[in-house]
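Obj: model holo form, ligand = zinc ion.
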Amino acid sequence: MEEFIARLLDLQECDREIDRLKADLESIPREMKIHRKDTEGHEAKFSLFKDNLDEIRNRQKKLTGDRQDNVARIADYKSRLISLKSNSEYTAMLKQITHTEKMNDQIDNMILEAMYEEDEALQVLERALKDRDRAVKRSAIREESLSAKLKDLEKSLDDIQVRRSEISSKVDTKRLKMYEKSRSTGHREVVTGIKHGSCGGCLTKIPPQKAGEIKGGKTYICPLCGSYVVWTSDSSF
Ligand SMILES: [Zn+2]
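Output (holo structure tokens):
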């Protein structure tokens, strides 16, 4: 293998590693976003259940208030009974008292129902609170490890970029330009190995005689994809 090809091969290895690291780096903010969304979902659920409980408690307060008003009203009606002159007034007031007492019976039932509802809502809320806390904790742990991973990846990327510039400084400018141009157009295997007698880049069959020459160290450019085809440790005819 000619020296410049060996260098291009090293450079290509670096670039592959850089691509991998960059892809990993890009996946981290995405994953963090997923965790945050999960936590937000739990928060929203919790606040919904909390609103429900508040509504039940407000209803209870209102019912209790209504009930007290009715009790006061009944007491007032009763106090006025003795001062009533006519029978019809008396009967009407008694009716009013009975009606108000009935209303309070209904209110008592509603208060009891609201108490059961409150119990249930409280249990649901407690479960949601536990779920939320668990999700927040899980997210925090995951985010911490993702931040650590981010730092590691950034460090690795810096290191490999230093290595890359060392290698590229040793590659002939013209060949380096050609390599970079080729890569920038999406060609990821500027230097490729023979795989089962074919070009590793585009799988075009290479004549056996040529393959033999490549094995012997001769430079070969694939006529179809333009890759430098070399003999690598996993190459075969
Ligand atoms: Zn090819």
